[in-house]
Amino acid sequence: MRLKVLLILTLIIGIILILIHSSCSSTQSNVKLGPDFKFSDKQIITTYVVPSGNIEKDETYIRVLHLDFQARGYKVIDANEILKINFEKITATNHRQIADSLQSKNYLPSSDIYIIVSAVWDSAFVLTFYSEDRYVYWKKYQFAGMNVPTLNSRVSIYDRSMRDPIKSYTASDTTYLLSENDNSDWYYREYPWMVIAKQLTRELEDIPICSIVDNKKATNQYKVSFLVDKSYREAFPDTWMKRLQLRTLYANDILRSQLDIELSQLEFVEWNSNFDRDLKNSLEKLYQSTTSNPGSLQIGITLDHELKRNWTDKSKLGIAYLLSTDAAITAQPSFPSIGQYWNPIEESITLVHEIAHILGAIHVPDNNSIMYPNAGTLSYEFDEVNKKIIGATKKNFLKQSTKERLIPYSEELLKVKDYPSDNSNPIIQATSSVIQLIDQRSKIIYDNPDKTFSNMFRLIPDSALVFAVVGYLEFKDNNNKSAINSFIRSIEINPDFAEAHYYLSLVFRKDGNDEQADLYKNLAKPYSKLWIIDRY
User: Fold this and answer.
1) Residue 58 CB partners (closer than 8 Å, separation 6+)
2) Backbone phi and psi for residue 318, each to the nearest 5 degrees, phi listed first
3) What per-residue string of b and e applies to 34-47 under the rule 16 or more CB within 10 Å gives b?
4) What secondary structure letter does DSSP report for 29?
5) What's the order of all strands across the beta sheet hosting 261-271?
6) Residue 229: CB atoms within 10 Å
7) Mean pLDDT of all residues in the chain?
8) Do 177 and 189 touch, CB atoms closer than 8 A?
């Protein structure tokens, strides 16, 4: 009993300390943005997040901060990244001194506004259950809960021509736990980016939209037809078109700045796909649709009411055929705590992710990349591998057939397979999925097996990859013996093809030969990120 009382007292003291800390933090001087300061006339903003010792959370804060201001129309410069490239660190902790140091760096672009952030992550214990039973001489206590991250931020915003901050604030927020209903024992914990987002949304509500419009057009202009399902139109009867226009606007901010691509000449088509919570079926219906518009991307827009808040896998949010012109996405939920301000940003990231798949992008195990297959990190930047892949396919993309796109695509995949020399980028399934898509129309595989290799050699300029693709397709069709022969032939041509070793181990395992499976699994060790396979 004494132990239980001690635990409760410890919990209460911990909560009091957190409240005291929050109270002390909130007493620091806050400066409101003056009504006469014309923030909207500024264009370029430099941000710097003081390193907290938690690199992952610092990078998350930077991403969320950048997305917030980009969504308001500003150009954002990442001082942390540029300092890193130039092997420099800022030792000052005073925000004014940090801003002065940034302004003195000749390699940093000139900026109108400087935003300095000091963020401290801690933890708090949140009760999820508590009960108290009274007896004659004693009480029985029961409680449950979990530790969740807390965020304490100090932010200063400076105009380059003024000494004092034009705006500053301190803020404290705790990760929320959400359940589907009051009787649920299952809780959804906010991601760290959501804690940052709700704090920024609240504290930066007085920051206006940038009044300076960038009219520069991207070199690669893509027409887009949105086929909007009845499920989506009924959910947003008066706003569905404006919603999609706003999401396209945000998507273009990402595509234009990183890939020199722009979605233009938008078309909105009412569509009835009889959505049944399976995006694969919706995509297939879209692909076979008679409303196909040559020379444009076709994006099916649906609404899955079953997602609610418990989504983590991007495959439930969107799907696309590589090197086709077709993708399907669903309106996705936002945690209530971050409000509707962030929903368009989240959905624009999904839109960019699926359009990148159309252009041939592959999933990567880097959670800083927009091509990371799991939701929850709010990544919006492309990794170097996918920049290279899209760079090889984006030119004249809409003027080519899938067959014509495959040749430069497979050539680039062969280059990035070994980039940056760790033999760990998966290319077999990506190539196979394109081959299968082509085969639906031209029947180069199943209707004429004698010409399978000769047909594929015309499309893929590498013998080892051709045999690996054939082996993969045979493996998926349960033709294990043929698959083994094809993968062995691929490895004979290129003994360092680690991904082929990996799939060969899977075939042997499936065929009941564990000894050979273990052998080839060990040979595939350079292919370290095996979990990424089969996540397209």
Assistant:
1) 49, 51, 52, 80, 119
2) -165, 160
3) eeeeebeebbbbbb
4) -
5) 261-271, 220-229, 297-303, 326-331, 318-320
6) 25
7) 83
8) yes
- C-alpha dist (Å) from residue 77 to 67, 218, 355: 12, 20, 25
Confidence of residue 6 (pLDDT cuts 50, 70, 90): very low
pLDDT at 446: 53
Rg (CA), the chain: 27
Is-contact 80 117, C-beta < 8 A?
no
Burial 49-81 (b: 16+ CB within 10 A, else e): bbeeeeeebbbbbbbbbbbbbbbbbbbbbbbbe
pLDDT band of residue 536 (cuts 50, 70, 90) is: very low
Of 285-294, 355-364, 411-420, 459-468, least confident by mean pLDDT is 285-294
Give this prediction's pTM.
0.83
Alpha helices by DSSP H, 91-157: 95-104
**Alpha carbon distance 89, 265 (integer Å):** 45
416 vs 425: CA distance, rounded Å: 7
Say what the pLDDT of residue 418 is.
67
Predicted local confidence at residue 534, as pLDDT: 46
Tokens 């409240």 locate to: 19
Helix, coil or strand: residue 374: strand
> Are the beta carbons of 93 and 48 closer than 8 angstroms?
no
91-135 pLDDT, tens digit each:
998 999 999 999 999 999 999 999 999 999 998 887 777 677 776
Q: How far is Cα 295 from Cα 302, in angstroms, rounded to an integer?
A: 22
Closest C-alpha among 336, 384, 378, 388 to residue 353: 378
Q: Which residues contact 161 (CB under 8 A, 6 or more apart)?
A: none
From the centroid of its chain, how far is CA 282? 22
Of the two residues 452 and 365, the one the predictor is more confident about is: 365
Distance CA 202, CA 220 (A): 37
The structure tokens 């081959």 sit at: 435
- pLDDT score, position 16: 53
Q: How many CB atoms neighbour CB 174 within 10 A?
A: 17
| DSSP H stretches of helix in 174-216 | 192-203
Whether the per-residue pLDDT at 348 is higher than 80: the answer is: yes
For residue 364, the model assigns a pLDDT of 83
DSSP SS3 for 300? strand
